[in-house]
Amino acid sequence: MQYWQKEIETMPHKELVEFQLKRLKETLHSAMNSPFYKKVLSDSNISIEDIDSLDDLQKIPFTTKEDLRSNYPFNMAAIPLRQCTRLHSSSGTTGDPTVILHSAKDLDQWANQVARCMYMVGIRDEDIFQNTSGYGMFTGGLGFQYGAEKLGALTVPAAAGNSRRQLKFIKDFGTTCLHIIPSYATRLAEVMSDEGIDPRKDTKLHTICIGAEPHSEEQRKRIEELLGVKAYNCFGMSEMNGPGVAFECKEQNGLHIWEDYTIIEIIDPITLKPVPDGEVGELVLTTLNREAMPLLRYRTRDLTSIIPGDCPCGRTHRRLARFQGRSDDMIILKGVNLFPIQIETVLMQFKELGNNYLITIDTVKNSDEMLIEVELSDLFTDDYGVLQTLSKTITRQLKDELLLTPRLKLVAKGSLPVQEGKAVRVKDLRKFN
Ligand code: COA
Ligand code: AMP
Ligand code: ZN
Q1: Are 112 and 95 contacting, i.e. CB atoms less than 8 angstroms apart?
Q2: Residue 115 C-alpha to ligand 3 middle, in angstroms?
C-alpha cells in the first residue's frame, strides 16, 4: 500500500485523538485573536484551560453560516489581513456572502490535503490532470490546481464549460485524470459519443474525482461505465477550505475524513445532540490547522453518517457515508450552490411580477436545468416585445445573482398552483432525490 504521508494516514486512532487535542488547543488560542470568537468564548465563559478532552469541545457553541454572513467580511480573521494571502467568497449580490480567509501556510496545508487525496486514488506525477471546475471563487478550481501541482502532475486548468474544448484537451494532451462534477461527467460522455470518441480507445483517461454535489452509487457506476474510468467521490466545502476534506480510497467504501485537519461530530439537526456511529445526522467540523480563520464546531448542514469499522486500506481516519442531502434548503445545481431566497429576492424587485412562482429542477438531455415560472402581476401586458425585454432583464439579474443561467417563463396571473400553508416553491426532479 502506498501513502502520501504514511505516519499520519495510518496513525493509531488513540494517537490521532491526542494529536487532535493538542491541535484543538492551538486552534482555540488562535481563534481568541478573532473578534468574533473572542466574544463567543468570553460570552459563554469558556477558558481554554477548561478543554481537557475532545468531549469538552461540546461546551463551545456551534458556528453557523449566518455567523459567517453577519461577520462579513473580516470580523472572523484571527491574523492581521496583511498576513492573509487569499480569500474565497460565496456567490450572491442580494445579501452578505460568506468569506473565508487563508494565509500562505493555510494554502500550503490545503494543497497538501488535496495531494494526499489524489495520491490515495493512485494519481501520480506522471499523470496529466485536467480540472473542469470553475476557477475564481469556486474552490474546486484553485483547490485542485494547487493540490495537483503539489503532487507533481502535469495540470490542465481547463475550467468549466465548453465541452468540445475539454475533449480536445483530453485527446491532444493525453489527459489521464479529471476533476469533474458528476452531472457534468454524463454531459461530457454525451458529447464524446456525439463526436464519435470512444473513451477507452481514443483517450488515456483512467481516474476521475467526482464531487461537489450529491450523487448515487448507481450514478457513479454509470459514469465509470460511460467514461471507462474509476470514479472516486470527493467531498469538500469552501468553509473548510474546499475539496479534500474527505475522499474515497481505492476501496470505494466511504470517504476518509482527514482527522489531523478536522474534528468531526455528527449531530441530530433538531436536538443538536450527537448521534451514534452509523446513524445519519448533520456533519459538524472544527478546523485544526487553519491560522487565518479557524472555525469551531461549524454546522455544515450536510447529512451523512460515520461508517463503523476499519478500512482494508490501512488508513485510520474514519469514513463518512455517501452524502444524503442537506438539513437546509440549499440547492446545488451544476456545482453551484444557491438558496431559493436568492431567487425570490431578485423576482420581488420587479413590480411587473406577482408573488407566486415555482422553481423546477430536472435533468434534460443529460444536462441539469432550472426552470423558474413566475406569475405576472396585475400590470400584465400581452405585448410580446415588452415581455421579451422584461424576461431578458430578469434572467440577467438572476444569472448575476446565481452564477448560472435559469430558464425563465413569465406566466399569466392565476396559472400556477395556489400556495396554501407552507409554500412549496421548489420541485427537484433529479434522480438522486
Ligand atoms: N462543470 C463544468 N462545466 C459545466 C458544468 C459543470 N458543473 N455544468 C455545465 N457545464 C458546461 C455545459 O455543458 C456548457 O458547455 P457545453 O455546451 O459546451 O457542453 C457550459 O458549461 C455552459 O453551460 P450552461 O448550462 O449553458 O451555462 P450556465 O450559465 O447555466 O452555467 C457554468 C455556467 C457551467 C459555467 C456554471 O454553472 C459553473 O461555473 N459551474 C461549475 C461550478 C463549479 O466548478 N463548482 C465546483 C465547486 S467545487
Ligand atoms: P462549496 O462550498 O461550493 O464547495 O460547496 C460545498 C457543498 O457542496 C457541501 O456543503 C455539500 O453540500 C456539497 N458537496 C460537496 N462535495 C460533495 C459530495 N461529494 N457529495 C455530496 N455533496 C457534496
Ligand atoms: Zn480506505
Answers
A1: no
A2: 16
